[in-house]
Amino acid sequence: MGPDAADVVRHAGGWLFDRSAAGWEVTVLVSDLDNVGALQILGATVLDLRPSLMDSNHDLWPTAVAVSVRSYLAERAVREGVLDCLDNGLTEVAIWGEDLPDELAARVGASCHRVSVAAQAFKSCALAAAGSPGEAVSPIESFQSGTLLPPSFREKMRDLVPPG
Asked: In what order do the strands lie in the sheet with 45-48?
């Protein structure tokens, strides 16, 4: 979840592509629907954030949620959902952005995703489509992430690891 396609691509585009390429169903919710083709380049389905969160028909619970701090602060439903995911401990929660609120800071720790070479190439194309051509693509994407409770979940989610 993020404010716009450029923010999501910039901070989580490699992770989204790598998960999509690994067979995950990747859905991105954004507040601003401009340049959503950039997210489709990464293999994501794109939905409008507010109507999607207000829809009471949620048949599936996500395995992982990645959220911009900006969206977390701007949308009450996002805050409630993220805190619920952290409380359950069954959904991987990754957060990007500056000035993490206190209610999150104590519940998450630094993690990163090592972006595959293919994801770096697709992320570069997605950044161009989002209006940032030529922007450098790092082989590492940094997040703050929550801990999954059952050990079996942690074993399956090895793409977000502590930095270093």
From this structure: 2-4, 27-32, 45-48
List the domain boundaries for the chain: 2-52+62-156
Q: Can you give the pLDDT at residue 123?
A: 98
Is 0.85 surpassed by the pTM of this model?
Answer: yes
**For residues 21 and 15, what is the distance between their CA atoms, to the nearest angstrom?**
10
The pairing of beta strand 92-96 with beta strand 140-145: antiparallel
- Name, in order, each residue with C-beta under 8 angstroms of 39's C-beta and a sequence gap of 6 or more: 5, 8, 9, 16, 28, 30, 46, 126
Residue 150, classed as helix, strand or coil, is coil
82-96 mean pLDDT: 89
Is the pLDDT at 60 greater than 80? The verdict is no
- What single-letter amino acid sits at 132? S
Q: Which two tokens stand for residue 147?
A: 């801990």
Q: Which residue has the higher pLDDT, 90 or 60?
A: 90
